[in-house]
Each structure stands twice: as C-alpha cells, then as structure tokens.
Amino acid sequence: MTLLNTLNLTHPIVQAPMAGATTPELAATVSNFGGLGSLGSGMTPPAVLHSHIDILKSLTDRPFMINLMVLSEYESSTFDAKIPVWLSQYYQENHIEFARPERPALSFADQLQVLYDNPVPVASFTFGIISAEQVQYLQALGTRVIGTANHPLEAKAWSDIGADAVCIQGIEAGGHRGGWLAQSETDPLELLTLIGQTRACTDIPLIAAGGIMTGQDIKAVQTAGAELAQIGTAFLTTDKCDINDIYKQALLDASQDKRSSETHLTRLFSGKQARGLLNDYLRDFAQYESAHELPPYPQLNAMTKFLRGHATDNLDPEYQSLWAGQGVALVRQERTIELLERLVKER
Prior knowledge:
Distance between the termini: 22 Å
Strand order of the largest sheet: 1-9-8-6-5-4-3-2
C-alpha cells in the first residue's frame, strides 16, 4: 500500500509543519484540498495545542499532522550556559531588556501527553527520536507516526522502531534541521542524494523535503524514490500563513531581486543549524558561528528571543530569523489554495 493510500491523501503534498508560521486554518486548507496539512506545535503550550487540535478537527474531516520537537527533560528545563558576551552587549547597546526565562523550552513529555489524550491522524517528530513503545502507543490510538531525518542512518533508526514513514530533509531545506546524529552535520546531503542513499538502507516510505517549490520538483523527488513531497517555503507567502508582514515582505523581496535570495545555515539564532535568508545579524556576528562559541539549542533560542522580538516590533527584517529554503527565489504572493492548485497542475 502506498503512503498516499495509507494517509488517505488525494495529492502527494505535505505542507511543512513550520513552528511559529503555521495555523489550524492553513493546515485545514491543505487537508481539505487533499494534501496533508500540518501544524508545527513544538513551541505550543499543551493547553493551546489541545485547543488547536479541536479547531482542526472542526475545520476538516481529512487527515492532518501535528509536529513536535523531541527534547529531553534536561534539555528543555536546564540553563547551564551563560548568555554570550556579544549578545549581552547588543542588548545593552540597544536598550533591550533581557530576562532569562524559567526554562528554555516547553516539556516534550507534556506535549506528547496531549497527543495521547486527544489523538490525531498523524504525528511527526523532529530534533530527535522517540521510543518504539511510544510509537506503538500512538499507533494503537490510530495515529500514524512520521520521523524526520537528515541522514540515512536516522531514517533507518525510525524504520527500526516501527514508524510509518520518515521525512528526509535535504541540505536545501529552510528552517531548522531535524536530524540528531553527528553525521547529519558532518556529512550533510543534498535531497536527491539523501533519497538515493536512504533507499539503499531502508524500505520505509519516504517524504522528501528541501527546495521543493513546483509541481516539477514533486515529480522529480517521486522519480528518485520518495512517495510524498513536503513543501514549506512556498507556503510562507500565502494568505493562510501566520508570519509577520516584514518577514513575508523580505521573502517576496528575495523573489523580486529587491534583496539577495542567498540563504545560510546558521546556529546564531537558536544554537541549532537552521537555514534562512542572509541578513545583517548573520553578517554582524558571523565570527561567533562555530558551535563551541554558542550555547546549545534550546538555550540560545531562549536567549535571542528578545533580539528577535525587538526587531519584529521595530519592523526590522535584519535581526529577525528569516527562515527560508534554497528555493526562496520562487515564492509568490498568492492564496494558499492557488499554490495548491498550481502544484497539482504543474505535475
């Protein structure tokens, strides 16, 4: 049985679960169209997540996906790194008040409990891997389980614990890299290479992500061995996406030669590698990019929250995290449904 049939989809389109950018309305629009709409919920408090699931269930009777970030209790609750001197100086020079949160991230265990209490059609996981027992528990509730991988060994690990599919994320992908093994950073792979190498070591159904912007791109990854295509950046400039206007305009400017469409992988915003548009923040502090210079994720992410918030309040794209994949030059200002119709027509 194909993944399209397993997930009860009409079209091989997965809308990427971009935390902070996705809404129940966006996910429901994609699901009602026949794709797999997704909600990036890794930064969503449990009570709000529960509410979001209820809203989604009211907006669509089609399958949808909830995505969570796998963090240990230690990672999500511990601050054992000091704020970098350069970041502290930036806050002082710009009169930005910094108050370290009680914890750097929400409890993954508490979020996962919501999926146990309020089951969803599909649950996906990034930044780590859950246990075989957790996979089986979700599947017993009727939830399909999808992992995220940047390396074939990560995909095989998800296969070995019984996941229904894995989303393999090439180096072209925007936003945070979902892998967790050292090899995903030391030997990063482009998407088509990643598909081929993953196919050689596991037969788990694959969802391809990274630089996919057109119907032709979908066809290409299917020809290479993936069953579905996960698309993120193309949705960011559509009407149902919940990013601020300055971020959205920066993406559109990159597609219209009003600013560079160059993207960089960086740890400077969160401590974890993520791809976004090159801006002044990445240029100004590039010397601190190396991993040993920075607090780890999610600690640095919590520390730079005030920098990003200040930039947003001041309508400044140069100090926001402008997450985008390498296909950003192809974004369009359009309705979400128009993008979906175009992707299907182009295939």
